[in-house]
Design brief:
Elements (H helix, E strand, L loop, with lengths): L2 E3 L6 E3 L1 E4 L9 H13 L4 E3 L16 H10 L9 E6 L15 H15 L4 E6 L25 H17 L3 E7 L3 H14 L4 E7 L10 H9 L2 E5 L34 H16 L4 H11 L3 E6 L4 H8 L8 H13 L5
C-alpha cells in the first residue's frame, strides 16, 4: 500500500480509502466490520463516511446510520490514532438533512458534534463540506450547467464564516483538517484565498467523482489542485460498478446498484456501456481484472491522493484492494488514452 500526504500536512493517508455509503442499507454491522478488518489488514488507514449516508437508497429515516455503524467498530479501538477518519457535513439542497439548509459556521459545529456522537470518537481527522452552497455540476448536471444562474451571495463572508468555525473546532481538538467535495476550480480557490487572507485553516482535499468514464477533473481542477496541494479523493472510481463489466450484455445481477438506482444516476448510458466494453477488453487482454485496471489508472494520476473504494461483498473488496499492487504498463496507458479519445464523455 502506498501512502500520500494529506494536503500540506504531515498526515499520510493510504492511496486506497474505504468508502462506507452502503452500510446501513446494503450492508449490516457484521458485514461492515468484516470489510473494515480486511481493509485495515491490507494497509488501508483511511475511512470515508458522511452524515447523510447510506445512499443506497438515501432516506430521511436512514440518515446517520452509516456513521453509527462505523462508530460501533471504532469504539475503544487502541489504534484509533493510526486511523484517518473522514466525514462530511451535508450542505445545501438535500431536504433529508436540516431541510436542505445552506451550510454556515454554526451548522458546521452542530453537524460535526452530532457526527462525533454517532462515530463514538472525540475527533475526526478530516471534515468535508459535502456540497457547495451554490450547487454543483456533479452527477451529470454538467450537461446543463449554468454558473450565472447560481446564487453565490457574499462568497468571501460565507467561506470565512465556515473556516472561522473550523479554526475554533481545531483548537478544541474536534477536527484536524478540512476539505471540500463536489467543488469547482473557482470554489477551491475561494477557500484557498480566504484562508490566506484571513489566516484561517487551509483546505487539504477535494472529493469529486473520477473514473475512466468521468474525467471532468483532468483539466482546470487538476491544475488548481496540483498547484495548491489539494489532493483528490476520487469517488465512484468504478462508476458505481459499470467498470467491473458486470452489466455487460444487459445483465443486471441481483442486489447490484442498478437494481436500486435506475440508470446509476445517469451513468448507465449507451456510450458508457460501449466505453466500458472497450476498457474491460483491454484489461482482460493484459491479464487484469477490469476493476483493478480502472482503480490502478485512477491511482496513477498526478493529482490523486486517495481512491475511494466501496463494496457490498468481501470478494469484491478483496479484488478492489488488489489494485494497490497493480502498476499499469506504458502500453496499457496508451491504449487507455486511445479509448478515452473515442469516448471522452460517455456519461
Amino acid at each position: 500500500m502506498q501512502y500520500r500526504k494529506l494536503g500540506r500536512t504531515g498526515i499520510e493517508v493510504s492511496s486506497i480509502c474505504l468508502g462506507t455509503m452502503t452500510w446501513g442499507s446494503q450492508n449490516n454491522q457484521a458485514e461492515a466490520d468484516a470489510q473494515l478488518d480486511l481493509a485495515i489488514g491490507e494497509g488501508v488507514n483511511f475511512i470515508d463516511t458522511a452524515e447523510m449516508y447510506p445512499t443506497t437508497p438515501r432516506t430521511s429515516e436512514t440518515f446517520g446510520e452509516t456513521e453509527t455503524i462505523l462508530g460501533n467498530w471504532l469504539k475503544g479501538r487502541a489504534d484509533r490514532d493510526k486511523l484517518i477518519v473522514a466525514t462530511k457535513v451535508t450542505g445545501e439542497g438535500n431536504s433529508n438533512v436540516r431541510g436542505g439548509a445552506r451550510v454556515t459556521g454554526k451548522i458546521v459545529r452542530e453537524a460535526l458534534e452530532a457526527s462525533l456522537v454517532r462515530l463514538q470518537t472525540d475527533y475526526t481527522d478530516l471534515y468535508q463540506l459535502h456540497w457547495p452552497n451554490r450547487g454543483s455540476y456533479s452527477f451529470r448536471r454538467n450537461w446543463k450547467y449554468d454558473p450565472s444562474s447560481r446564487h453565490v451571495g457574499n462568497m468571501e463572508q460565507e467561506v470565512a464564516d465556515i473556516l472561522g468555525e473550523v479554526a475554533l473546532l481545531k483548537e478544541e481538538g474536534k477536527l484536524r483538517e478540512f476539505g471540500l467535495s463536489n467543488e469547482t476550480a473557482w470554489g477551491v480557490m475561494k477557500f484557498v484565498e480566504a484562508s490566506e487572507r484571513h489566516g484561517l485553516p487551509r483546505i487539504v482535499s477535494i472529493q469529486n467523482e473520477y473514473s475512466l468514464l468521468c474525467r471532468l477533473f483532468d483539466l482546470d481542477l487538476a491544475e488548481t489542485c496540483i498547484r495548491e496541494d489539494v489532493g483528490l479523493m476520487a469517488y465512484s472510481p468504478l462508476a458505481t460498478g459499470l467498470l467491473t463489466g458486470k452489466y455487460a450484455g444487459g445483465e443486471v445481477p441481483a442486489g447490484s446498484r442498478l437494481t436500486i438506482l435506475a440508470n446509476l444516476n445517469g451513468r448507465a448510458t449507451e456510450q458508457a456501456h460501449e466505453a466500458t466494453a472497450a476498457y474491460c477488453d483491454l484489461a482482460r487482454q493484459n491479464g487484469l481484472p477490469p476493476e483493478q485496471m480502472a482503480l490502478g489508472f485512477a491511482m496513477s494520476r498526478p493529482f490523486m491522493m486517495s481512491v475511494i473504494i466501496g463494496a457490498t461483498s468481501i470478494d469484491q473488496l478483496k479484488t478492489n484492494l488488489g489494485a494497490a499492487r497493480v502498476a499499469l504498463s506504458e502500453d496499457v496507458m496508451e491504449a487507455i488514452g486511445a479509448i478515452h479519445r473515442r469516448y471522452p464523455m460517455p456519461m
